[in-house]
UniProtKB/TrEMBL annotation:
Keywords: Signal. This is Tricarboxylate transporter. It comes from Paracoccus gahaiensis. PANTHER family: BLR1237 PROTEIN, TRICARBOXYLATE-BINDING PROTEIN. Residues 1-27 form the signal peptide.
Length: 361
């Protein structure tokens, strides 16, 4: 299943072709070097799992086989680590950043804490992802027919922050009328999952990589009940089932069965925009844009070797989900598309976040 429609992918390929270097570029040799990969989240969340899946492969495919070290810098729903990278990163290829929707959303919405600019970075690899919302079995709810039971409860949700990657989850739960009490300040989605496991939260959400690695065992042991997958939203706003969770209903399916009609209106349009901006290209490897051409070429070729390996899809399906990866110019062009949000939707989101959670813009 493609996360980008054919017309959009064709447009991205055209943009990528326009950016292609007109001459052969020599590869950068990283022999004996250590590459610091900043992950602006704590250990155990989806982005951390994703990075630790790719790090040893990057070490093997980059020229000279350098040591790739994951540096976790949690705080501010990824803003702290992204700000630090923007301030300290070198352009010699020894500093890379892994971003997530929690990094994209604040930049799109104009969060005053943001001190980074995506225009200063070049995307080398972009990984789409999905995610699953699941609940504590104590509620006795296993599907949309139990929505009224959930509505009768005040349910805690451990979150990194209102503008973090949980934003479309919070909006989805609000659209269904649930009484969610978010507890902000988690350093990663992994920390949110641990709060759920301790009984401090009654509902939780994890992206595909963390769900497959850390939540599926909870489901198997009867300690968590999946409610719905967020689903895949294409460029036209069509929602389909997540290829990593083909037997799980999407949010739209769950909503439609529970509420008796399909979601619509401003909130739903905003939800779809968030999914496109934050999940179609959720996790990215970026370099400073002023990195030399040979550095960018080396990373691009290394990423291409990884995702084109014969066994990549099988290994990825077990660790991070079954999604088509974007590499090089195609990834960078897609990033520019994802960061473009309709001003009316941005206004709806900032108003909602200000009124419900006191976020200041």
């Amino acid at each position: 299943m493609k996360l980008f429609t054919t017309p959009l992918r064709a447009a991205l390929l055209c943009a990528a072709t326009a950016l292609t270097l007109p001459h052969t570029v020599l590869a950068q040799d990283f022999s004996g070097e250590t590459i610091e990969w900043t992950i602006p989240f704590g250990v155990g969340g989806g982005t951390d799992v994703w990075a630790r899946f790719f790090a040893p492969q990057l070490s093997q495919t980059l020229p000279g086989q350098p040591n790739v070290v994951v540096l976790n810098v949690p705080g501010g729903g990824s803003i702290t680590g992204a700000n630090q990278f923007a301030n300290r990163a070198t352009s010699d290829g020894l500093s890379i950043l892994g971003t997530s929707a929690s990094t994209q959303y604040p930049a799109i919405l104009g969060d005053p804490r943001v001190r980074y600019d995506y225009a200063d970075w070049t995307a080398i690899l972009a990984s789409p992802t999905g995610g699953v919302v699941y609940a504590d079995p104590k509620y006795g709810v296993t599907g949309p027919e139990g929505l009224d039971t959930l509505k009768a409860e005040e349910i805690r949700f451990a979150s990194q922050g209102a503008t973090a990657l949980e934003m479309p989850v919070l909006l989805a739960l609000k659209m269904m009328g649930l009484n969610i009490r978010p507890v902000f300040g988690m350093e990663s989605r992994g920390a949110g999952r641990l709060a759920f496991e301790r009984g401090e939260a009654g509902i939780d959400f994890q992206t595909s990589s963390a769900y497959l690695n850390s939540v599926a065992p909870l489901v198997d042991s009867g300690k968590a009940v999946p409610l719905f997958a967020m689903g895949v939203v294409d460029a036209e706003g069509n929602v389909s089932r997540d290829p990593s969770f083909p037997d799980m209903p999407t949010f739209v399916e769950f909503y439609t069965e529970a509420m008796g009609s399909a979601p619509e209106g401003e909130a739903f349009e905003a939800w779809k925009a968030l999914m496109i901006a934050g999940y179609s290209l959720q996790k990215m490897v970026v370099l400073p844009k002023d990195a030399p051409a040979e550095v960018i070429a080396s990373y691009t070729e290394a990423a291409r070797q990884i995702v084109e390996a014969p066994d990549f899809r099988e290994r990825a399906g077990e660790e991070i989900g079954v999604y088509d990866q974007l590499v090089g110019e195609e990834a960078d062009a897609a990033l520019q598309v994802a960061l473009t949000v309709d001003p009316a939707i941005r206004e709806f989101l900032t108003t909602w976040l200000s009124e419900d959670y006191g976020v200041r813009f």
